[in-house]
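Before going further, learn to read the protein records used in this course. A complete example follows; check for yourself that the lines match position by position.
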Amino acid sequence: MKTWIVFIVSFLALDLYFQLSVQWAPNVVWKLAAIGLFFPFVYFVMKWTNKGGFRELGLHFHAKWRRNLLYGFLIGFSFWANKYGIEYAFGAFEIKGINAGPDMGWMTLEIVGGFFLGSLVNDLIVRGFVFAQLKDKLSIPRIFVLSVFLYSMEDIWMEGFSLGNTIFSVVLGLSLTYAFMYTGSIWANTGLHWGLNVCYGMFNGMVGDGGGGIFIIENGTNTIASELTGYIIPLLMFFFVWKFRAIFCESLTADEPPEVKKALTS
């Protein structure tokens, strides 16, 4: 019981910090400062729970971390580009032009950099922290399910509750969580998350800013086909990540319990 109380309190502390100080930040400067302070905060929480530091969260620079990050980005971006392409073909939106004004460079930098940091912090909380805290207490499949569930609950902060959005988040969480579980580090997972978020930002801007993205779009008519695309594409991405998982480099350490190694490589 004490273990679970410590886990719940520490998880909520990290999640509330992320949601209140990062996600709802009033401007970019505030957001960057909040993200910068997150790293010493999560390190302190890990030490408080006697779980080590950044390495246990999956935040370590192994030999192929750049490769995992790049491949993850390309996969996430490609699948989301196909998602928007299909929705465009079904008339879910129209592209009216490009935001080619003087702020385009800053907007692009904000989308690319902001989504990288936001994706990384979110992944550290709902995957890195959850696995680090519970891998000695629960089986890996159970932690996997719990991590996907917690990720799906995250979206309620920003989007409000809806069954469709929850199902979407659960399906998307499969790819992200599997990439983390298989590689044993954060980079493939964050690459996927970052890539799809950058593609999202090109059409919608940063989450919650309401300012639009690089493309100027006008909403069209949602059809059953375009709605289903939002579920099918992340599901296909999961199957792709699972089928071609060998493109990612595993980052297992000698002190990993045998059952963890077995789960990561199976």
Remarks:
- The beta strands are 93-98, 215-219.
- The longest strand covers residues 93-98.
- Residues 253-258 have pLDDT under 50 and may be disordered.
- The first helix runs from residue 2 to 23.
